[in-house]
Amino acid sequence: MASVHQHPRTKYWVICFRNANGKRVYVSSGEEDKNAAKLIAICLQDVADKYRRKKRKKAYLRQLLNNIAAVVGCETIEEYTIRRWFKFWTSDKEDSQSDGTGKRYTALIRDFLAFLGSKAEDDLSELSSEDIKLFRDKQVAAGLSVASANLLLKTIRGCLNAAVAQDLIRCNRADAITLIPKEDGTKKAFNREQVQLLLETTDDEEWFGLILVGYFIGSRLGDCAGFTHEEVDYPRKALRYKPTKQKRSAIKNEVYIPIHPQLMAYLESRPNKSGPIFPRLSQMRVEGESGLSLTFRALLDKAGISYTSKAPRGEKGRTVHSLGFHSLRKAFNTDLANSSVSQEIRQRLIGHLSREVNDAYTEVELKTFRAAIDTLPPFSVKPPTK
User: What does the pLDDT profile of the chain (386 residues) look like in tens digits?
Assistant: First the structure.
């Protein structure tokens, strides 16, 4: 039974009651009026008794406190179940990130909530480090790559960091879980002899140009295939484009890169100077049985370029090859480094640290970048004829 006592050294009444663990505790009521202190004492004891007897979770306690707040006309405590908060967070990410990134976040959180089952309806504060680790480990056992598993953990961390920032939880339980050490890199860079062999092997004029673009621009396959003549600054022999893999925002960051003389000659030889540079390839999907990735792999096999493949692990695993179109991007960066081009310039050229480009882009910067690009020697092969 709760009781109140006058504190000898203050003007406030002290409440004595048994908490949810059955321990007798003393707390200040913050009230000078004895009757008001008694009402608070009765309320606290009632909540503690119900919480202890029924073994309720924090959501139940939060609801009781909100009922009290509503009766006395106070602001209620924001209620968030695990499901509600994670869905709110992913919805916000879908609006602020690129389409691909937003969908990836949504898929990861959907799988996480499905794994939690009925626990997803618990209060957000009930989510434990063990819940998160068990989910991550289950995905790895099903064949998820180390990189994807770490991305999954980082996604959950980001979601819970946002909850901490809004005072919905006191700490981020995902911080207690360490990232899985990276596996030895499977994607390697092509050497110049292999790029030369690819160019010699293909009898497709568009694929010949796409390989040149992949090597001399260093962008991703989807971006390379989608380049248009309108993105080519023919007078200044440069390419201005917005990488698709970046945050969704009102103003997209652009990469502005000088075009290598051999690639420039190819572009100037194209019959049309408007629309897609690769009309046919730009219509193909990147992935899929007839997509650009597998078509490029067939070209690798035709050229006799050997590569290793790791078989998928579990139902979520996928075959990982040591060489692919992305290896052209790595070759671009590697060969620039071997030509003593600084890391800062290489990052700017490859778009890892891109910035918004405008008409004030200086000629000095452009000359510096062009000098870096021109350190790459041309390949001794001509485009295939129709």
Answer: 789 888 777 888 899 988 888 889 888 888 888 888 888 888 888 878 877 776 556 666 666 666 666 666 666 666 788 999 999 998 877 655 555 566 778 888 999 999 999 999 888 988 999 999 999 999 888 878 788 888 899 999 999 999 999 888 889 999 999 988 866 555 688 899 999 999 999 999 999 999 999 999 988 899 999 999 999 999 989 998 888 765 544 455 777 888 999 999 999 998 888 999 999 999 999 887 788 998 999 999 999 988 877 766 555 556 677 788 888 888 888 888 888 888 778 877 776 433 433 333 344 566 788 888 888 999 998 888 76
Residue 41 domain-assigned?
Answer: yes
Contact predicate 204/160, CB 8 Å:
no
Residue 63 lies in a domain: no
* Whether residue 230 is found in the same domain as residue 330: yes
Residue 114 exposed, middle or buried by CB count within 10 Å (0-12, 13-18, 19+): exposed
Domain holding 49, by residue range, is: 3-56
Question: CB within 8 A of 26, min separation 6: which ones?
Answer: 14, 15, 16
Given its phi and psi angles, is residue 117 left (phi above 0), alpha (psi -120 to 50 degrees) or beta?
left
Q: Would 381 be classed as within a structural domain?
A: no
In a domain, 261, yes or no: yes
Q: Both 41 and 165 in a single domain?
A: no
> Which one, of 292, 147, 154, lies nearest residue 213 by Cα?
292
